[in-house]
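Subject: DUF2383 domain-containing protein

B.,
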Amino acid sequence: MATSTTIDRGAPPEILTRLLRAELSAVETYRGALARLDDRAAGAQLRQICVDHSRSVQVLRGLLLRHGEAAPDSTASHSRAADVSGDHGLAATVHALRDDEARQVEAYRRALSDPALTPQVKAMIRSDLLRRSETHVPTLEALIAAD
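Prediction pasted inline below.
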């Protein structure tokens, strides 16, 4: 008896929906931060990270759709970065964004150990989603150091 190894095998793990919600939250958070900080030197880097999260949203939506699941369009999740304002807005916002990014990296790493995910999905997480997220932390740390 052969078992299927395609991405389409079985019901989608809840972890894909959680990862998608986290990515949607990140897009919303970066858009909020850009509304306040886009005119600063950090704006270009924050904009690129927002684009990266938008790409991750599309990848995760595609995975859920392949499983026949409707993917959420938004999330009620709220990041600390969205709450930061005032005179120290840039530094505090970038610190909060970095902390959120570190949590996202850990969420992807945990997903790699989820037995419900197929090897193909894990490969996509490892080569695309995790790798992209891992680049955000040092970018934000460089912004913090430059401030």
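The longest helix spans residues 119-146.

T.
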